[in-house]
Amino acid sequence: MIDKEFENLLIRLVGQTVFEKFKHEEKEDWLDMQRDFESRKRETTEDSEGKLGIRIHASLIDLYNQYSQLDLCTSLASSQYAGLIDLKRDKLKISYKVFVQLFDTSVSKTVGHLKSVLSDGTLKDVRVLLMVGGYSESPVLQHAVTEALPGLKVVIPVGASSVILRGALIYGHNPESISKRILKYTYGTSHTPIL
After folding, report:
1. Structural domain harbouring 144
2. N or C: which end of the chain has fewer CB within 10 A?
């Protein structure tokens, strides 16, 4: 969801046509920009100040200049993001205020879902929440979860983004290492009745 919000921000900055052309014709540059954005997501806190830099490729600036009467610097200075987003050489300087807003919908839905799941009577004794996966490394999400669920101890292991993969490897080598699994959906193709 945050990646989609970033795309929407870029669309507001350069326009739908320019963004789609950049995304489809300059795939390597787009992937590089996404990687840079991904690393910024994991280091941004809700109380960060100033601006962060995300590398913007010349190919996007060139495309923008082909479709616009103004250069991107001038357009940004006269947009709704004036003073909040600037272009300095090959960096899009985004204020942390704007950047953290990209998290709002995702964080709100995640916290809401956690509250909903934990309100189930069968989970009333849960006291520890283990956050794993890449998104769990986001300080913005971590802060929101600990604020919203003060009665729980929140644990984020080192290398949280690869914990799921490591668990799958352990399970693959030793299926008995997992004593119980609860799946929301399964692909049942046959069964053996227990006598």
Report:
1. 104-177
2. C
